[in-house]
Specification:
Elements: H1 2-14, H2 18-33, H3 36-41, H4 47-59
C-alpha cells in the first residue's frame, strides 16, 4: 500500500513544470524584497506572460 502511495506522489511530482516553479520562486523572493509601493506600481509579470515575451523576442 505504501508503495502505491509513493508511486502516486512521484507521478504527480513528475507532472510539475520545473521552469515555472523556479520562475515563481524567484518572483516571490524578489517581491519580498520590494517595498509595498514598488509592488503596487510595477507588479512582476506572471510566468505565461514571461514565456510569451521570450517567444516574441526569439521570433524577431
Amino acid at each position: 500500500m505504501k508503495l502505491i502511495a509513493l508511486f502516486g506522489l512521484l507521478l504527480l511530482a513528475g507532472c510539475a513544470d520545473p521552469a515555472h516553479n523556479l520562475y515563481e520562486g524567484i518572483k516571490q523572493s524578489n517581491d519580498a524584497k520590494r517595498t509595498p509601493m514598488e509592488r503596487a506600481t510595477q507588479p512582476a509579470p506572471d510566468y505565461d506572460s514571461y514565456r510569451k515575451s521570450l517567444e516574441n523576442a526569439d521570433a524577431k
